[in-house]
Amino acid sequence: MIKIYNTLTRKKEDFVPINDKEVKMYVCGPTVYNYFHIGNGRTFIVFDTIRKYLEYRGYDVKFIQNFTDIDDKMIKRANEENSTVKEVGDKYIEEYYKDADGLKLKRATVNPRATEYMDEIIEFVEALIEKGYAYEVDGDVYFSTKKFDEYGKLSGQNLDDLQAGARINVDERKNDPMDFAIWKAQKPGEPAWKSPWGMGRPGWHIECSCMSYKLLGETIDIHAGGSDLVFPHHENEIAQSECRTGKPFAKYWMHSAFLNVNNQKMSKSLNNFFTAREVLEKYDAEVVRFLMLSAHYRTQLNFSSELLDSAKSSMERLYNAVFNLENLLKEVKSENFTHSEKEYVKTLDSYREKYIEKMDDDFNTADGISTIFDLVRDVNTNINAESSKELVKYALGLIRELGKPLGILENSTQNDLEAHVEKLIEDRQNARKERNWALADKIRDDLKAQGIVLEDTPQGVRWHLKND
Predict the structure, then answer these.
(1) Which of 148, 190, 265, 290 has its CB surrounded by the most CB atoms within 10 Å?
(2) 233 assigned binding-site residue
(3) Looking at the domain assignment, is residue 288 inside a domain?
(4) What is the pLDDT of residues 269-280, one digit of tens each?
């Protein structure tokens, strides 16, 4: 039984979808006014992995991730680029897909754009006004937070505490300082749509409520996003949605923790802000995914070049095992399982069971990865040229199988590893010619740490993989 930590109840709960094996999942996507940064990347990788793991466990996941393509940031960027909001949105949605594909994110079932749902958003706002949960003032429409008795239940704060601690722009037109805009009257030079309240555009929160409602229905299984969205975005989504339908908006609320850079919160002011594209120029997607999944998704994770290098070495160790098994397939003579090998397969299967046990516990990818390393150590010790082809194939398939939900161990190995090692051997030979012994030794030691042993022979440098 999969268990999920539900932000709403603040405890782990058994995962029981509304409709048996069908899962309706909504993850808040990017505001498309720029390239997404690596902090966003962690959130995208986390919920991509959770989706893939649910599919691995036999669920049919309808996965919705929206694009916010109309808001203040979009308008500001359009003005800066002497462009239109639509042109900015089109540009950065295209760039999003390039980087998302680069990170090996599986395409969403639907990526709705807010501007494509304007009629539905207006209808949603009208319904809230009719039910008495929203009111219009000079072309703006506000949601009345005090009309929703459970406001604050996701963030765990009552309305009075929220009001006292919030930084709210004073607007005397609102009935209450905590009321928030669900429709905004047009300002000069802004894009706008015709509505019963005049020309205007939707507020951010109403967009997600509407797209989730239209694409997934009144109650969904999982709503997810970064922890910074708990309040006010997700809190306001709950209020709007539940006031319209009178039903729970989502059964499970999931939130990923922040990504720090060199032990500091990532921000432009500290100049420690990296786009996913910048990182992917230096590191393979699987290395980035490995680092992001090496900690539990609810734990803050540090991000640095040193940790990426460590992740790269770890991935190389795993790929060395895959490479070794693929080579064994060419060497082994025996075809079928022996009796003892059939018994050993039970040992291999126990790693799958352990992996599922760890991942079922609120998607503990860190322990899932550790289990793959345990499997690899066992395989390196017990499978060799005397093994049967059937056993080698089984072990290789199992390693690949457990890596797939994490989005790792999916690359080819033969050409990649050989080219990698041969290039470093060439660099080491050049260093020795230049009598740079320190660099030559470092290259040898780095390769050894990756499980690759160099041997200097009269015929030249040879290399082979060592067992753990």
Answers:
(1) 290
(2) yes
(3) no
(4) 677 778 999 999
The closest alpha carbon to 345, from 396, 412, 419, belongs to 396
Q: Does the annotation place 237 within a ligand binding site?
A: yes
- The verdict on 25 and 63 lying in the same domain is yes
User: Would you say residue 418 has pLDDT above 80?
Assistant: no
Q: Does residue 47 form part of some domain?
A: yes
Phi-psi region of 263 (alpha: psi -120 to 50; beta: other; left: phi over 0): left
Q: Which residue has the higher pLDDT, 65 or 459?
A: 65
Total structural domains within the chain = 3
* Same domain, residue pair 149 and 213: yes
Range of the domain at 456: 416-465
**Inter-residue long-range contacts of 295-299, CB under 8 Å, 24+ positions, other chains counted:** 295/366, 296/362, 296/364, 296/365, 296/366, 297/46, 297/50, 297/254, 297/256, 297/257, 297/363, 297/365, 298/5, 298/255, 298/256, 298/257, 298/362, 299/257
Position 137: which residue type? Answer: V
pLDDT in tens, 198-257: 999 999 999 999 999 999 999 999 999 999 999 999 999 999 999 999 999 999 999 999
Q: Is 306 annotated in some ligand binding site?
A: no
Q: pLDDT of 59-69, one tens digit each?
A: 999 999 999 99
**Does 148 share its domain with 219?**
yes
Q: What is the mean pLDDT of residues 20-29?
A: 97
Considering the domain architecture, whether residues 113 and 244 belong to the same structural domain is answered as yes
